[in-house]
Design goal:
Layout: H1 37-50, H2 70-84, E1 93-98, H3 102-105, H4 114-132, E2 137-142, H5 152-157, E3 182-185, H6 196-202, E4 207-213, H7 215-228, E5 232-241, H8 245-258, E6 261-263, H9 265-271, H10 274-277, H11 284-306
Parallel strand pairs: 1-2, 1-4, 2-3, 4-5, 5-6
Helix pairs in contact: 1-8, 7-8, 9-11
């Protein structure tokens, strides 16, 4: 068993309905690469959404519903509208980039995550989109100061990353811009012992997009913590990484069931379209897909109105 901080015991060969390709214990961490990330993410998201506790209701035509049953239709319509509230929009959004440090992304580190390298381009694009939109980008880094109590994590892993360790800085590809907060944390939860919530409230943030490492530890814990604080959480399946595909998919499914909308980076990028912000940050195909989604939502609203 790996005893390094955030290093996981390698799971067994359980089958997750074809989403996870079985690997030997020696290469479980190499579960994804830049070349197959898009396709794998599509399967991960599909699997996670199938387990969502917030399922979208089917459309109903007026003719298919008896007048005496119209009350139940209104209840179903309300559920559909509640689902729509979790659609990502840049307004009131912030990006939280979790622990993208040399410790996890440098091959010389004993805590190196190969999957972390695979998600770097997607993550860098997300950061660029949020910066271009003048939306908050907040970085965290795990580091324990000399003499500081790391709590149960130190006892659990038997090791800690010290603040002055050369592996503690954020990787150069994601160097924070001037004025962007970099929060040092000592626990999985980015809210615990930091002023993250204060920063978000001060910027009138309502929606959190979460990315970074590790999916099932710091990212998942922060997503849950954000949810219970009242934020709408959007969890990037192809901009988070961990020690194995089993752990990654398991976290996505758990979050989708009760805490977060599991999304792809392209879905978030589509929201940064001219109809929202007046500039283009994604391909025409993706913008077209987003606009099509908007038209579908408008049509659903018309159908709902017809049922009244």
């Amino acid at each position: 068993m790996n005893s390094s901080p955030f290093g996981a015991a390698e799971p067994g060969n359980g089958d997750l309905q074809g989403v996870i390709v079985q690997s030997s214990a020696s290469n479980l961490k190499d579960y994804v690469s830049a070349s197959n990330l898009e396709e794998k993410a599509r399967l991960w998201i599909e699997d996670a959404r199938a387990n969502s506790g917030r399922r979208r209701q089917p459309r109903l035509s007026r003719g298919s519903v008896p007048r005496w049953n119209r009350g139940s239709v209104r209840r179903r319509r309300t559920q559909f509208q509640r689902s729509a509230q979790f659609k990502f929009s840049p307004e009131g959004a912030a990006l939280v980039v979790i622990d993208m440090q040399e410790y996890f992304l440098n091959p010389k580190s004993h805590a190196f995550l190969p999957a972390g390298k695979a998600i770097l381009p997607n993550l860098a694009a997300l950061v660029s989109n949020f910066r271009a939109a003048k939306l908050p980008v907040i970085f965290t880094r795990y580091a324990v100061a000399e003499g500081e109590d790391a709590g149960a994590m130190a006892r659990w892993w038997g090791d800690v990353l010290r603040e002055n360790d050369p592996m503690a800085p954020i990787v150069p590809e994601l160097t924070p811009a001037k004025g962007e907060p970099v929060l040092r944390k000592t626990q999985y939860d980015a809210f615990y012992g930091t002023n993250l919530e204060k920063i978000l409230r001060a910027n009138s943030v309502r929606r959190l997009a979460i990315c970074g490492v590790m999916t099932d530890l710091c990212c998942e814990t922060t997503a849950r913590s954000g949810f219970v604080r009242g934020f709408d959480v959007f969890f990037c399946a192809d901009a988070t990484a961990t020690a194995s595909e089993v752990l990654h998919v398991s976290a996505l499914k758990t979050l989708a069931h009760g805490f977060a909308e599991v999304v792809s980076c392209s879905e978030l990028a589509a929201a940064f379209s001219p109809m929202h912000l007046g500039f283009r940050t994604c391909t025409s195909r993706r913008i077209g897909s987003f606009n099509g989604g908007a038209r579908t939502t408008h049509k659903a609203a018309e159908n709902a109105e017809a049922l009244r």
